[in-house]
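hey all, quick one before standup. I had two proteins in the batch that finished overnight and I want to keep them in one place so we stop losing track of which output belongs to which input. First protein below, input sequence then structure tokens straight from the run.
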Amino acid sequence: MKYDKGFQKEEKKKSSVLEKFHIGKLPSHAPLQVCLTTVAVGLAVGSFLCAAVLNGNAVQLTANYDGDLKNNLFPCARKPLPVCLSLSLDTCNSKCCPTGYLCVRDPTVGIYCQDALVTCGAFDFCLDVSDAAGTCERDACQERHSVTNMTYLVYVMSAAGVALDLIDLILCFALADNVVFKSVGNLISCGVKLLAFAALVGVGTDRYLSQMALGQCFNADGAIAVERSQLMFTLGALALFFSASSSFCLVPISAMHGGRLSDRPFYQLKIMDIGG
């Protein structure tokens, strides 16, 4: 009988990339957690950028409604200069309006300034937005102030959402086993983003910008700024909503696994010092 020399050698199995770097098999939650975290952070940063542009446009669009002209976004109708009080004067003079505007007397609001080159599309709406009388009693004027103030609050809350998501990333590495901090952080981040989304949509930003665009209340540069604001509103609202949804989906995963991408072992060997 012939016997093979030595013992039969087992075929070597090719080691995977995870085994090569001494990384255990990833559990099923790891890809989902990485994907949701990436989406939440990316959309949070996007919503912050959209809110920054939207707030900047809102401030610039309201800058020329009173006082001296501050930029090239000229409204078709605006308040007279402080030296010409519409409530105390019955006639116009050359000092009432800045360069490029004509002084006009209206029976309902008194003296206001009309752009010499731009005609208001929806005259009544544009005149109400301008608050020529200085009382801001009309709904359009109050809506303008509400939208301008709320875009700043949304900008601040979007920044807070980005900060909370960055803290969440730090917790993934620094306190991976602390499921309480991780899950509570995701929940707070979700709440802040939803609050920003509700503030942006609930104040009537979309309706106000649409009326401004249809009413043609600005010159060509101002119309471009209004269209850009509408785009930033849509993108920012969508980014806030889906980023908040991603943070909410991370709450149960964080409550179960914390920041770990691999499961903890069922047992651990401990060194016992006997008789030492």
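OK second protein, same deal, sequence then tokens:
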Amino acid sequence: MSDNGFALRRALLPDFPTWIVCTLVFFIGAPSMAATITLFCMDHDCSDSPPTVSWAATHWPGRAVFTPGFNITGFCSVIAWWASSQLFRLMQLVVEQGDMVACSIPGTKLLAVSRLLGVVSVVCGGASGGLLIALSTITLNDSQWGHTICTQLFFSTQLAAVVFHAAGLLILRKIASPRNDTFKFLCGVWEDLRLLNALAQVLLSLGLVICFIVVNEYADIGIPISKHFYSLVEFGECVLALSSGLLIGLQVRQCRRLAFKNQ
């Protein structure tokens, strides 16, 4: 890999340990969410009606943990998606400057589509981080419906961010030369894990919608779903969404370590 490539990588990924901030999305967000539900159940009977994250976060003492925890998580999530956009921008430059595989659609047009998808992805990702901060504010106002709506918007923007990123990456992989080692290096194993994460989020989001419809009796679709199962699906969807920041952070860490090691 050329010295110019490593210089460019240094320019796009600052010396500040961004990867640590990215991983805090998971390492602060997930424990805060688990503690919120645990504290709620310690103060209420959850054996027959387990709480959703939205419901637990609007009650003391759960929101005493949720509010500061998700303020930090939301801020770190915005940083994580910014770091993701820098990596994606670098991948696009590497593909553009290297040989591109001939396709029925010109590579320059596919590259432009990939850029657009990358922009949409980071905008949605940044919005999802902002919504986490908004969730904390709404929680303090005891707004259950507001909290529920904001939670669903978070799931939607987070899902859009990972799906658009995955689509943009698949386009880059389609046009990148098999001999482009720099592109392969930037992707590493982390982009494969992010693709799997995106797929899992899509499937769980569909499951969450079905659970929401059945549990709230909006429609009878013939699937027996308990409130406990609904609570588990929502918790799993939250963990998957928060793990996006962890994967971005580890990817940034690997790229920086190898870049400085081999420059």
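Flagging for whoever picks this up: The radius of gyration is 20 Å. Residues 207 and 213 are 10 Å apart (CA to CA).
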